[in-house]
Amino acid sequence: MIKICFVCTGNTCRSIMAERIAKKLLKSENLSGIKVLSRGLRANGDNISENAKLVLKKHHASSANRKSVKLGKIDKNTLYVVMSNFTKMTFDSPKVLSFEDLIGRSIADPFGQSEEIYEQTYKDLEEGVKKLIQNINLWRGK
Question: Is 1 exposed, middle or buried (0-12, 13-18, 19+ CB in 10 A)?
Answer without folding.
Answer: exposed
